[in-house]
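[agent] plan:
  1. take the single chain provided in the ticket
  2. run structure prediction with default settings
  3. attach structure tokens to the ticket
  4. add a short note for the reviewer (M.T.)
[agent] executing step 1
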Amino acid sequence: MGRPLEWYSVYVKSHHERKVASLLAGHQLSVFLPTVRVKSRRVDRDQLIDKVLFPGYVFVEANLSDGISRLKVKKTPGVLHFVGYGNEPTSIPHEQIESLQIAVDSELRIDPYPYLQEGQRVEVVSGPFKGMIGILVEKQLAKQRLVLSIDLMRQSVIVTLDACHVAPY
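[agent] step 2 finished; step 3 output follows
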């Protein structure tokens, strides 16, 4: 018996996520393209559209050890490369994909959120502190604690912001 199927992420050309997902599914591969329903403002009305949750990425379940599936994925028009460390694709734990599928299938609102780590330089992108740059010192459930420093003076202040106001710098 061969190795079990693993989930991988492939990086695709801009705005090619749906096409790549369709082509990969045509190769009898399991594909997951998470989308969320959002309001889109049109000239004369609001319209609900399905928006790709992670632009530029498509998840595919495959056994890459045989080489055949790897080649099918890499040769698919629109696929740029597998996501991984070095030159090797890195599998994604099944629990993470399953959790994401549950979230997408639910009726609840989900939004993409920047992947931030403590110690990372970040920028405030909205709100009263817009434009400030600092170091993220603490992540809480809905808040971020940001240290703003003036290096020359060796002085700092700490600001607590809603998580939605902070993005990687």
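[agent] step 4 note for reviewer: The chain has two domains: 6-105, 121-168.
[agent] ticket updated
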